[in-house]
Design brief:
Blueprint: H1 2-23, E1 45-54, E2 58-65, E3 68-76, E4 88-96, E5 99-107
Parallel strand pairs: 3-5
Antiparallel strand pairs: 1-2, 1-4, 2-3, 4-5
């Protein structure tokens, strides 16, 4: 008789433990850090060449790369000063929306030979 009572109590205990486990949703013990967003900066590039055309909103230069002449047109943020046609210039630019956006236009100075 005692044995039957022990079996009934142990079965009741197991069933109640299962029902309590089923009631609680599984908790996620591992905390996941929010995804870090990396802002991708566009690469800054340089071009050196001779000015063909210049206006307040754009500048066009011709440069020589491995013996081939190449014409490049840049959109200007602000009008350049002291730059005229046939000047040698160095332009720092980025590519944005399929256009070349000039961030800095500087006259190129010839290197002195020693």
């Amino acid at each position: 008789m005692k044995r039957a009572l022990v079996y009934i109590v142990s079965v009741a205990f197991l069933l109640s433990a299962l029902s309590f486990a089923a009631d609680k949703p599984a908790t996620d013990t591992t905390k996941v850090d929010p995804a870090k967003t990396h802002v991708v900066k566009p690469a800054k590039m340089n071009a050196t060449g001779k000015v063909i055309e210049i206006s307040d909103s754009s500048i066009k230069i011709e440069r020589t790369v491995k013996g081939n002449a190449e014409t490049m047109e840049f959109v200007l943020d602000k009008p350049t000063e002291n730059v005229a046609v046939n000047d040698s210039v160095k332009i720092a630019y980025i590519e944005k929306d399929g256009q070349l956006l000039a961030s800095r236009v500087v006259k190129a100075t010839p290197k002195k030979k020693k």
